[in-house]
């Protein structure tokens, strides 16, 4: 089966046709390009849980953006880690796939994204709770626009949820781990209501 290195059309479709958000997320994907080396180091240090988290985060980010080859290999690495099998050869494959994605990103991402991002305007929201509801819905859908909402309204959201909780949510979101970000958001809102 021939899996594409980077399926831009599928990635844009996954983000509801918003190419601006897609290319912005694709630029941020570069933080994951050292994942194979990071997993190798985590395994060598005996940090099995950390290695699992790194691969899981990579798989989610790759899937969101249409990096099918990386997603498929990351899934195999996850399975191998879960079963206690050796992952050395798979990590070599993953490193090569990540390098191919980097080459695609270099030629695919426009230097400047011409269309401005149009997130929901804060003044169109009745209050911060509505903004939090909107963010929660985006995270629940796995919609990449959540990251842009977090970036645009960071000061408001940090004040509403508290610095520690907000930084946990933001870190998870930027790692494309929307499930973890949603759980942290729900926990922070529950604590804030008390």
TrEMBL record:
GO terms for biological process: phosphorelay signal transduction system. It comes from the Bacteria. One of its GO terms (molecular function) is protein kinase activity. Keywords: Two-component regulatory system. Residues 41-103 form the HPt domain. The keyword Transferase does not apply. This is Hpt domain-containing protein. The lineage of its organism: Bacteria, Pseudomonadati, Pseudomonadota, Betaproteobacteria, Burkholderiales.
